[in-house]
């Protein structure tokens, strides 16, 4: 008991320190000196489950993203940009480490009951930039561990506001927030719960601000507005501090359940998905406008998609819409066809910050700053697509790109919405598609053609080389063990943990 009380006190003091630190004490650089180079600010916006064709700039039949389309005309649009994985936790881990899941240990999603998260020996982008003198903030869905030292405040971020995992992973009181609905139990006794079939045993989703749960159940209809407000406040604060900043925004959009502050689904021509696209687009537009009015000349804004529930290595599972904007640095109305990945964000930002990559490990991303500035067309020649959905094969590289060709060594195995698992098919020799002529991956090359025979040895060698490289690397292992005691809860006396500005720490749970 004494240990738990001491642990709780440590978390309270840490939470108070972080809040005071964020609002009152600008940070000096580690060296304490200012060089002639002015470090740029970075804003990374990650949108869950958004499709490549959701942007009007990519597919002109869509009219739901006017602000993002404007960014495309003022910056650079990428045609062949990919998420590093096709589910939540692995895609985020790769973005924040620059390493594939087979290296950083995060190969599938963490649960509400997960004890751990992104391995503590992995260095995050927040860690590196904070060490380089940056003010750092994470807003939105974390999903890389919420218990103890896995919380974002201990992974390189001075400030955090967000939910610990996907918003379909906790019960809420309002019907339609969860798919399927999960009404909360009105009673506490086991006898009452036993006789109510609609009783949902999980804990309602919490909203954290630093280490404190400030709302539970979270109000999903106001969540986007709250994220926007805090992001704008952080930009304003950081711009006045005299220090560079890194803002990582991981949106709930377009992950289900779809919610809106002002539902417009009954209007002619509207649909839930399109309405949510417009809400997300407006959010990004407000953040971009704040950048333009405060730190326009020295801020890189990078918008990209995160694959959180696609669970497939087909193009629809990982090819994502991506835009980059930096007034005066990134050419306006530019389109880049080079093959890039969210893995590239880490080394690119580290390079632009004049910081150093963490030692004693290999990285799968590359510095693409010259591509951003329109001075290079050099991207990845090969890109690897790990499986994130098939049970027992998490993280395995089952498909890869070689230039415009895509090779599949295994297809299927992803989990469908109804919980069923698609039938796996092993392909020896692999299926190979020429995406230059067949983006929809409908007609694999005939194995008897010269084109197929030319690509096959290159693909096989690339796969063998990456597997040997990973085997010789400093590999991390994530702990995927479970314990119901780590479920975040701010009020242990109430089943659905209602609270507002309530104290919380990782020792006191429902």
Written description of the protein model:
The protein is α/β, with parallel strands linked by helices. The chain has one domain (2-22, 42-262, 270-380, 493-500): Alkaline Phosphatase, subunit A, CATH 3.40.720. 27% of the residues lie in helices and 18% in strands. It has twelve helices and 15 strands. It has helices at residues 2-24, 66-74, 88-97, 101-104, 125-131, 190-194, 223-241, 272-294, 315-318, 345-352, 369-372, 450-471; strands at residues 41-48, 76-82, 135-140, 159-162, 207-209, 212-216, 245-251, 299-306, 322-325, 334-341, 382-386, 397-402, 405-411, 425-434, 499-500. The chain has an eleven-stranded mixed sheet with strand order 10-2-9-8-1-7-3-4-5-6-15, sandwiched between helices. β5 (207-209) and β6 (212-216) form a beta hairpin. α2 (66-74) crosses α8 (272-294) and α7 (223-241) packs parallel to α8. The longest helix is centred in the N-terminal third of the chain and has 23 residues, at 2-24. The radius of gyration is 23 Å and the shape is globular. It starts with a helix and ends in a 10-residue tail after the last strand. Mean pLDDT is 82; it is low at 1-34, 173-200 and 501-510.
């Amino acid at each position: 008991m004494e240990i738990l009380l001491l642990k709780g006190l440590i978390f309270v003091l840490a939470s108070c320190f972080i809040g005071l630190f964020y609002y009152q004490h600008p940070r000096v650089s580690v060296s304490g000196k200012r060089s002639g180079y002015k470090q740029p600010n970075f804003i990374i916006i990650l949108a869950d489950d958004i499709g490549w064709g959701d942007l009007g700039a990519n597919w002109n039949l869509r009219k739901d993203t006017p602000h993002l389309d404007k960014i495309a005309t003022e910056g650079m649009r990428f045609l062949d940009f990919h998420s590093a994985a096709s589910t939540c936790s692995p895609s985020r881990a790769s973005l924040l480490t620059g390493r594939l899941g087979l290296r950083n240990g995060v190969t599938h999603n963490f649960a509400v009951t997960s004890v751990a998260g992104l391995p503590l020996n992995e260095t995050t982008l927040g860690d590196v930039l904070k060490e380089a003198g940056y003010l750092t903030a994470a807003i939105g869905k974390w999903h890389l561990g919420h218990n103890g030292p896995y919380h974002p405040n201990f992974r390189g971020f001075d400030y955090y506001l967000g939910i610990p995992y996907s918003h379909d992973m906790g019960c809420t009181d309002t019907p339609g927030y969860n798919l399927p609905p999960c009404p909360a139990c009105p009673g506490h006794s086991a006898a009452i719960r036993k006789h109510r079939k609609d009783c949902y045993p999980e804990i309602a989703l919490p909203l954290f601000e630093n280490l404190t749960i400030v709302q539970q159940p979270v109000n999903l209809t106001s969540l986007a507005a709250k994220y926007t407000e805090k992001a704008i406040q952080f930009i304003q604060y950081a711009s006045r501090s005299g220090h560079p900043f890194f803002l990582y925004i991981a949106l709930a959009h377009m992950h289900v359940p779809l919610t809106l502050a002002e539902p417009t689904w009954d209007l002619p021509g509207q649909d839930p998905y399109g309405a949510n696209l417009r809400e997300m687009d407006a959010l990004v537009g407000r953040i971009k406008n704040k950048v333009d009015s405060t730190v326009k000349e020295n801020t890189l804004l990078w918008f990209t998609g995160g694959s959180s529930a696609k669970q497939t290595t087909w193009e629809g599972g990982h090819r994502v819409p991506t835009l980059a904007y930096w007034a005066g640095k990134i050419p306006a109305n530019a389109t880049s066809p080079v093959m890039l990945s969210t893995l590239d964000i880490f080394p690119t930002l580290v390079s632009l910050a004049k910081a150093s990559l963490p030692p004693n490990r290999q990285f799968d991303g590359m510095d693409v700053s010259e591509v951003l500035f329109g001075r290079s067309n050099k991207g990845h020649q090969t890109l690897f697509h790990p499986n994130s959905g098939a049970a027992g094969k998490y993280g395995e590289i089952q498909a890869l790109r070689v230039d415009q060709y895509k090779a599949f060594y295994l297809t299927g195995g992803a989990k469908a919405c109804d919980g069923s698992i698609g039938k796996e098919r092993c392909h020896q020799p692999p299926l190979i598609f020429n995406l230059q002529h067949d983006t929809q991956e409908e007609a694999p090359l005939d194995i008897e053609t010269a084109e197929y025979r030319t690509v096959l040895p290159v693909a096989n060698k690339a796969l063998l080389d990456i597997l040997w490289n990973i085997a010789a690397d400093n590999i991390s292992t994530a702990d995927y063990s479970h314990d119901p005691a780590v479920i975040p809860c701010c009020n242990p006396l109430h089943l659905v943990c209602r609270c507002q500005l309530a104290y919380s720490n990782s020792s006191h749970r429902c």
